[in-house]
Amino acid sequence: MRENVSIFESDIMLGVNIDHIATLRNARGEGFPSPLYAAQCAYEAGAHSIVCHLREDRRHIKDEDLFNIKRNILCPLNMEMALRDDIIKISFDVKPSKVTIVPERRDEITTEGGLDVEKSYPILKDLVKEYKKNNIEVFLFIEAEKNNIDKSVSLEVDGVEIHTGKYANLIGVEKEKEFLKIKEIASYAHNLGLKVAAGHGLNYQNVIKIASIKEIFELNIGFSIISHSIFVGFEKAIKEMLYLMRIAKNIKNN
């Protein structure tokens, strides 16, 4: 049974990405550690949703993982995915609570930037309608640019997830400029009726500032939580992230 996590609650939800639990499993070709068990543990620790990215090369999460997780968790599943015909078909079979459309290159180590919404517009135009018919929310993973927001509104998606990877890698004045850019775009998107999430590169050192942006309702974080869990345990790693998000809530309210 999920324990009382009220002292860690925040008005920002936390989606825990468990891709790298599967990366570790795949490294030895064993049946463990189990992504499903990780998803269940994340929920028990206070996660609001589970995030999985089904990549073309299946480098971590595999098809059966998605189906098992969807069938056996008590919180929403957010499926990250590229606009590939085979992945799109699987998404309709899995029926996650939400799909987040991301760009994808086979040779990238991790997602390197936001979706080119304008280029993807012809495919998305009809696809978004089909997802809505199936009661699946649609988010686009984007760079913090107004044109991306305008196109997202035109597509009638449910929301956007702002790519914070660039912010995470910058320092000093440039980092502050990127933060202000994200803050401005979050406000712009929110005022146009979009839900606003953020993710990529967020960790225990940089999360508070992003979480303090009042328009952002959700952060999706995986690698830093799983890395930290090696030293403190998975449950504690999630709760520590939720605690930092609670600090950000207090910043918002002051």
Shape, per Cα inertia axes: globular
Q: What separation lies between the terminal Cα atoms? A: 34 Å
> What is the mean pLDDT?
92
- Which oligomerization state do the chains in this entry correspond to? single chain
Folded structure, characterized:
41% of the residues are buried. The longest helix is centred in the last third of the chain and has 20 residues, at 172-191. The chain has an eight-stranded parallel barrel with strand order 1-2-3-4-5-6-7-8, surrounded by seven helices. Mean pLDDT is 92; it is low at 5-10. Strand 3, helix 4 (85-94) and strand 4 (98-101) form a beta-alpha-beta unit. It is of the alpha/beta class and 254 residues long. It has eleven helices and eight strands.
What's the structural blueprint in terms of helices and strands?
Blueprint: E1 13-17, H1 19-28, H2 35-45, E2 49-53, H3 63-72, E3 77-81, H4 85-94, E4 98-101, H5 117-133, E5 137-142, H6 146-155, E6 159-163, H7 165-169, H8 172-191, E7 195-199, H9 207-211, E8 216-221, H10 223-232, H11 234-253
Brief summary of the model shown:
This protein is α/β, with parallel strands linked by helices and 254 residues long. It contains 11 helices and 8 strands. Strands 1-2-3-4-5-6-7-8 form an 8-stranded parallel β-barrel, surrounded by 7 helices.
